[in-house]
Specification:
A hairpin with a 4-residue loop joins strand 2 and strand 3. Helix 6 crosses helix 13 and helix 10 packs antiparallel against helix 13. The chain has 2 domains: about 60 residues, Alpha-Beta Plaits; about 250 residues, Zn peptidases (Aminopeptidase). It is globular, with a radius of gyration of 20 Å. With about 350 residues, it is α/β, with parallel strands linked by helices. The chain has an 8-stranded mixed β-sheet, sandwiched between helices. A 4-stranded antiparallel β-sheet has the order 2-3-1-4, covered by helices on one side. The protein binds zinc ion. The site of zinc ion has 5 residues, from loops.
Length: about 350
């Protein structure tokens, strides 16, 4: 019995060690055919002056280098610098318990404007929250704003909390914010992936959540728990518009990601262009279609929401870091504010 318990402890401990996610970053410049192959298996994060930056989980490095033998290693562990910022700012960045208590505080502070809904539970048992902000009435556009699909993009959650608080505090005082809230129902999801958010990890069970949605050419793509919950939620809610916050890159983008072709519906394309260009007017973010602005990305949220429910689905890459030093947050909120209000105002 004692040996069994000991063995269990050792096994649990070694799984924990193994679970620490390590991601390498590479610079890759290959011909388009090879790049397409790489993009289907790995996360192309950004366009560089020469080639692209690609994230590769440590255990996949061998397979990756077989496809891209000339790849140049940029960082051995992309989390290292970011986590240093987190350590320096001690407990200031929210963990999931704080996210939970802040959501409850907001709901208690604004009982006439908000209600705290849930749409499932994560694999490790964390509640999936959606804060509904509504002044009542019917037939309003339903908009959703999400953050922390990637659990290491902590800045997205901080920005979303700041702007949500501003929006609520401004109701009845600021005419612009009052108007925004009077004619739209807004659903705020500050953490899409709570388990990886708590672990400060990017992926979920070694899978990139934002490449785990089904897409038109792969309608049965195997997904992870939190994305499946999000799929069920959005298919039920049928949002008019959605805004998925990521970090980083200073980009505002629309579908498709999975193909370089534009959506067939030209009215939709016109609408999308209109939205992203107005959103980027103030902060000068780069605006365009996902696949041509970064690279082809199969299985992203924006593609899924647009494909399944016709949602005007926008993906944003905020700022220049995933976990900036804590004192930079106000300036990143500043550069995101007008972009967010403009997104909400588009739908009426
Ligand atoms: Zn992301």
């Amino acid at each position: 019995m004692f040996i069994k318990v000991l063995l269990l402890i050792v096994l649990t401990f070694s799984t924990t060690i193994f679970a620490a996610e390590k991601i390498r970053s590479y610079q890759v410049s290959e011909n388009p055919l090879k790049m397409d192959k790489i993009a289907r298996q790995f996360e192309v994060v950004q366009k560089l002056t020469h080639g692209f930056e690609v994230y590769v989980l440590e255990e996949d490095v061998e397979a990756f280098l077989k496809i891209a033998p000339h790849a140049v290693l940029l960082e051995k562990n992309v989390h290292e610098n970011e986590l240093q910022n987190l350590e320096k700012s001690a407990t200031q960045y929210r963990d999931f318990a704080k996210v939970e208590s802040d959501l409850k505080t907001i709901a208690a502070t604004y009982p006439k404007l908000t209600s705290l809904d849930t749409y499932g539970v994560s694999k490790e048992g964390r509640t999936l929250y959606s804060l509904k902000v509504s002044t009542g009435g019917e037939n309003k556009p339903k908009l959703m704003v999400t953050a922390a699909t990637h659990g290491d993009e902590l800045i997205t959650t901080e920005v979303l909390f700041s702007l949500t608080n501003e929006l609520l505090a401004g109701y009845g005082k600021d005419s612009r914010l009052t108007k925004i809230l009077d004619s739209r129902d807004i659903y705020i999801i500050p953490v899409v992936s709570p388990d990886s958010f708590e672990a400060r990890e990017r992926y979920v069970q070694r899978q990139d959540p934002n490449r785990s949605y089904p897409w038109p050419e792969n309608p049965t793509n195997k997904t992870v728990d939190v994305i499946e919950a999000m799929m069920n939620y959005t298919n039920k809610m049928k949002f008019t518009g959605s805004l998925d916050l990521h970090a980083y890159g200073r980009l505002v983008m629309y579908p498709w990601g999975y193909t370089k072709k534009a959506p067939v519906n030209t009215a939709d394309v016109g609408g999308f262009k209109d939205i992203v260009q107005s959103m980027a007017k103030d902060n000068q973010y780069t605006a365009g279609q996902i696949s041509t602005t970064i690279y082809v990305a199969e299985g992203s949220s924006a593609d899924y929401f647009y494909w399944k429910t016709g949602t005007k689905a926008i993906a944003v890459e905020i700022g220049r870091e995933k976990i900036p030093s804590y004192n930079k947050i106000p300036s990143i909120v500043n550069e995101s504010r007008e972009m967010m209000w403009t997104f909400l105002e588009y739908f009426n």
